[in-house]
Design goal:
alpha+beta; 5-stranded antiparallel β-sheet; 125 residues; Thiol Ester Dehydrase, Chain A
Length: 125
């Protein structure tokens, strides 16, 4: 699959990859480490994506990214992402992604440890 579609715009599936990459980058910036999570026997997995495509990103455009967490309880984390044309430019894509904290051995959701919950900034909290 190409990152740019037949219309010379970012392919819709590529936006999903951007949402996930932004989430991982944000978590790393907060001091969370995927490999450390794996060693603990737990990881975050996506259980739902909701994506609204507002407009296309032209080839070579500068894209500004934003992400924040609005909910974290039980085994569930809700993360929002926004991609705009340049800083302060028009909205290109917005996403709401539900992540589940799962035990690797069973792939079943498990309650997020209190220490992790306390380290995550929650919008509006």
């Amino acid at each position: 699959m190409k990152d740019v579609d037949e219309l010379d715009h970012v392919n819709n599936v590529v936006w999903v990859r951007y949402v996930i990459q932004l989430a991982f980058a944000h978590a790393e910036a907060l001091g969370f480490d995927f490999e450390e999570d794996k060693r603990s026997g737990h990881v975050w997995v996506v259980s739902r994506h909701e994506i609204d495509y507002q407009r296309s990103a032209p080839l070579g455009a500068e894209i500004a990214e934003e992400t924040w967490v609005s909910e974290l309880h039980g085994a569930r984390l809700v993360r929002h992402s926004r991609f705009s044309l340049g800083s302060g430019g028009p909205l290109l894509v917005s996403a709401r992604t539900v992540w589940a904290w799962v035990e690797l051995a069973s792939m079943r959701p498990k309650r997020v440890p209190k220490e992790m919950v306390e380290r995550f900034p929650i919008a509006g909290r």
